[in-house]
Amino acid sequence: MITQRRRFKDLDEQHILALAISSEEDDARIYRGFAARLRNDFPKTAALFDDMAKEEDSHRAALIALHQERFGQIIPIIRREHVAGFYSRRPTWLSDTLSLDQMRSEAADMEKRAERFYLTAAAQTKDAHTRKLLGDLAAAEAEHHRHATDLEEQVRQEGEEEEETANRQFILTWVQPGLAGLMDGSVSTLAPIFATAFATQDTWTTFLVGLAASVGAGISMGFTEAASDDGVISGRGSPIKRGIAAGIMTTLGGLGHALPYLIPDFTLATSIAIFVVFVELWAIVWIQNRYMQTPFLRATFQVVLGGALVFAAGALIGSG
Question: Do residues 174 and 157 touch, judged by C-beta distance below 8 A?
Fold first, then answer.
């Protein structure tokens, strides 16, 4: 057992193997700590650190097997801090606030130092078998160093993938049901609201019909969306969130052209309501083009033409 600090060049081959074994064990633990910290936010990078830890375990196993073959079962307790002038692991990796860049930098430095250690140890070793193993481990650590320096690109790509996934989930959970609700509320309420408006010429009655149609459609659309799919298989997210999005947007879509009829003047109220309908339909076109990648002309044809036909039907029925 080593009881005081010794110079690296004074270590015999058994102590060099024991030092390598403890160093590999420490490095594996550090990498697993990094992986645990990153698993929720950067699972692919965490998996890379897990793989590096497993390889350090394989290095340790090879070193233990060689020690058993040459020196027996009892491995001396010798660690980095027992060797004067030997490299040590900086304590930064113990911090809970270690950033991803700091982890990447620490990993690159760890592998670079480990490679240098194995090269130095191999040069100091006379046994051919031991020297070959240490040389192979130096090459493996050099490969790890390249992995560590590639982590920045790995993290960047993973961040982009996660951002894309989050955006897709946002569209499926909020935008898609909200858009469906806005279309339903804006278009389906056109006929009853404008039919009532032209039939009665009474703004308050028209508002009440529009309010009832909008709220009723919102409740119906919200419950239908929530009950139609629990999101487990489809991956569309929480049915409650989708139901809220669909219900609220359906109600707002109808209220948009019902609220102007709070104005007592029928002509002014109807003019504003028609303008609101125009804005609603073009908003739907923009959302379809922006979030659903629907070609602009196709979205315009589907929404504006459909809305115009429903509006015309309501106006004709009310006028008759």
Answer: no
Please state, in angstroms and rounded to a whole number, the distance separating the CA atoms of residues 24 and 235.
42
The domain that holds 143 is classified in CATH as: 1.20.1260.10
Q: Which residues form the domain of 313?
A: 168-319
Question: What's the predicted TM-score (pTM) here?
Answer: 0.54
Q: What is the pLDDT of residues 163-207, one digit of tens each?
A: 676 677 888 888 889 988 898 888 888 888 989 999 999 999 999
Task: Check whether residue 144 and residue 202 sit in a common domain.
Answer: no
Q: Residues 22, 26, 27, 29: what is their CA dihedral angle, to the nearest 10 degrees?
A: 140
Q: How far is it, in rounded angstroms, from Cα 30 to Cα 52?
A: 10
CA distance 117 to 89: 13
Query: Considering all CA atoms of the chain, what is the largest pairwise distance in Å, rounded to the nearest integer?
Result: 107
> Could you give phi then psi for residue 83, rounded to 5 degrees?
-115, 120
Domain count, the chain: 2
Position 242 in a domain: yes
